[in-house]
Backbone:
């Protein structure tokens, strides 16, 4: 049958094949340099301070010459990219926006590397953030639609592991470059430039990715969708694994109606409103724990009296755990409810953070840092899977962009709150703030989060 519902059902019946995992890898490689830049803030912050362009803290709450303004500029850009331009992937397709946003990010990041004032650096950082914001929303939407329902959790685990593999690379480069000036150029500039150039190389690899068949079908382009799914089915012909059972074609016809066009207002319709409220609360407070640690860990260690070189060394060792953390949960990613994984990992972030604030020995600092990284990254892959599952195809990108934008807006203000807290209450104050935020995350997900395990996207949407 050549219908949108049949396309969706055929996708969900696909067994595990090399072609499917290849698509996950290519998408993930595309996201590597977005994650490189996402975590670059914490790694280059000491270098920006060392170059006397920014200060670690500011006299005023909203000072524009402190690292907090650098963090805020990037996340304002992410906010703009997710909330203002989140709709473009729903309108123009996952694949084309996936490529365009990477080019935008690369150009803006490269220009930023040549700036010499706090204002100009913040401006280009903001513009780069807009490109990354669109990219990250598109990746989550794209990946959730390409995967059969029985592989979505593991696909996002592998996606996270590959993307997080760039973190120890970035941390190692920061440890080597930031305290130095190779060829008379500040090390942080080299670090920024490497990310921009590497992203272009990845763009060449991901031209092999197909458009999302679900998006094509929803737009009425059934012949193109059928051609892509037929290719995936052909790759599975020789596979002995049984295909998963799904609803008969036609049961999802309403959601996959190619005449249906969604709007942002759909996210407050009955049935979606509780999900939207839950995801807004989650994104606002999850970002405090995730980016409060990731973006500030070198600065927090320096505040503890550790030198810049040792701070970056410890950060590198902690970052090694980043790509391995998701893989520890690969075999259970589709066996445990996503909301359960999120709640347990949020609890871990709160507890490990409070202990991290109290320790002083290098072994304890690194050990607690690794545990925090594992908990944060498990929460990350679980919620990236979760929020992309909760809305129908016609509004998936714009809905994910809207709820995701709240995390970006949260970090803008939390950057200043954390700088203020660090100045007046020290490292323990910062982690008390993080623990309280994780408690709100647990309550919101526990009370309002629906179950999604082993359900088709269309079943979840209804």
Residues:
């Amino acid at each position: 049958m050549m219908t949108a519902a049949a396309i969706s059902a055929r996708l969900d019946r696909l067994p595990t094949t090399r072609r499917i995992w290849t698509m996950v890898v290519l998408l993930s490689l595309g996201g590597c340099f977005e994650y490189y830049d996402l975590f670059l803030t914490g790694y280059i912050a000491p270098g920006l301070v060392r170059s006397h362009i920014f200060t670690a803290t500011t006299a005023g709450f909203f000072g524009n010459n402190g690292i907090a303004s650098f963090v805020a500029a990037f996340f304002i850009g992410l906010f703009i990219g997710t909330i203002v331009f989140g709709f473009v992937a729903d309108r123009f397709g996952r694949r084309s926006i996936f490529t365009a946003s990477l080019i935008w990010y690369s150009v803006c990041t490269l220009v930023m590397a040549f700036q010499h004032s706090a204002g100009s650096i913040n401006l280009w950082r903001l513009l780069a953030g807009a490109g990354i914001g669109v990219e990250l929303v598109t990746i989550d939407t794209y990946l959730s639609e390409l995967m059969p329902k029985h592989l979505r959790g593991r696909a996002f685990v592998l996606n996270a592991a590959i993307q997080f593999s760039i973190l120890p690379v970035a941390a190692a480069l920061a440890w080597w470059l930031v305290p130095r000036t190779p060829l008379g150029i500040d090390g942080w500039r080299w670090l920024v430039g490497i990310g921009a150039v590497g992203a272009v190389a990845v763009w060449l690899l991901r031209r092999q990715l197909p458009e999302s068949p679900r998006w094509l079908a929803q737009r009425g382009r059934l012949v193109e969708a059928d051609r892509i799914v037929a290719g995936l089915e052909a790759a599975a012909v020789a596979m002995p694994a049984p295909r998963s059972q799904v609803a008969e074609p036609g049961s999802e016809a309403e959601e996959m109606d190619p005449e249906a066009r969604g709007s942002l207002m759909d996210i407050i319709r009955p049935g979606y409103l509780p999900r939207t409220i839950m995801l807004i609360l989650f994104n606002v407070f999850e970002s405090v724990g995730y980016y409060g640690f990731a973006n500030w860990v070198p600065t927090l260690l320096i505040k503890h009296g550790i030198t810049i070189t040792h701070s970056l060394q410890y950060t590198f060792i902690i970052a090694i755990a980043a790509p391995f953390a998701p893989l520890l949960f690969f075999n259970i990613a589709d066996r445990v409810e996503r909301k359960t994984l999120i709640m347990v990992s949020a609890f871990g972030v709160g507890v490990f953070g409070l202990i991290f604030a109290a320790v002083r020995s290098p072994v304890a600092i690194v050990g607690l840092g690794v545990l925090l990284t594992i908990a944060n990254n498990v929460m990350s892959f679980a919620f990236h899977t979760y929020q992309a599952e909760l809305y129908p195809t016609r509004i998936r990108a714009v809905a994910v962009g809207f709820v995701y934008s709240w995390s970006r807006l949260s970090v803008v203000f939390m950057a200043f709150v954390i700088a203020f807290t660090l100045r007046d209450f020290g490292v323990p104050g910062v982690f008390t703030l993080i623990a309280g935020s994780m408690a709100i995350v647990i309550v919101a997900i526990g009370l309002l989060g629906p179950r999604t395990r082993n359900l088709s996207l269309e079943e979840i949407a209804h």
In short: The chain has one domain: 10-237+255-461. Residues 396-448 form the longest helix (53 residues).
